[in-house]
Amino acid sequence: MSRANLNTVCLLGSPRRGCNSDTLAEHFTLRAARYGAPVTTFPLSELHFSGCKNLFRCKSDLEHCAQADDLTPVLEAVSQAQVLVLATPVYFTNVTGQLKLAIDRFFSFFVPDYPTAKVKSRLTSGRHLVFLQTQGEPEDKYANLMESFSASFNGLGFDQHHLVRAWGVRNSGDIDQESSVLLECDETARRIYLDA
Ligand SMILES: Cc1cc2nc3c(=O)[nH]c(=O)nc-3n(C[C@H](O)[C@H](O)[C@H](O)COP(=O)(O)O)c2cc1C
């Protein structure tokens, strides 16, 4: 498969539509689409879903999440994604609640014996995780946020990590002044979809 065709799924973590993190996501996904990638975007704040309830059926009688809600098609799409884009503002030092609830449901991708298994995921490896992070505080804050999720995403098969961060952006539209961050989105897309 040509890399430009990499199936791409984008989860928008901000409850504010069209603002800083959405803009980064749109910038990246438009570029991906221009390279020929199929892109599906889910605005999480418009969906009704719960976090993982630890029913554990994905580790017993099912191979997927037993909870049926608006996240069901999202999980199906993520399972088919070669590139997963997570766009989030920093909220209280972390990703937004909406995004964290969705990430917790990724637990269903792990095989039953994941703590000891060599291959921990039901998903294939070599997939890309693109983490688009915006925050009001300065650069030195939350630089390691994506890294805090690294081991989990590596285990799931999303083991190629790409981080784009914007700091000092608080109000809607602040991101439009951050031309270097927008260029970084372009460059990240080029590396993923075009480079060998
Ligand atoms: C509830 C809430 C909590 C926030 N917590 C933080 C924080 O801990 N650190 C920070 O740098 N910015 C924080 N911010 C600012 C947002 O990260 C910042 O405004 C971001 O650019 C918003 O992204 P958006 O425009 O995509 O919604 C917070 C904003 C809100 C509304």
Describe the structure.
The chain has about 200 residues and is of the alpha/beta class. The protein has one domain (about 5-195): Flavodoxin domain (Rossmann fold). It is built from 5 helices and 5 strands. The protein has helices spanning about 20-35, 70-80, 95-105, 145-155, 180-195; strands at about 10, 40-45, 85-90, 130-135, 160-165. The protein has a 5-stranded parallel beta sheet, with helices on both faces. α1 (about 20-35) runs parallel beside α5 (about 180-195). The longest helix is centred in the first third of the chain and has 15 residues, at about 20-35. The protein is globular, with a radius of gyration of 16 Å. Flavin mononucleotide binds near residues 20, 22 and 90. Flavin mononucleotide binds near residues 16, 22, 92, 134 and 169.
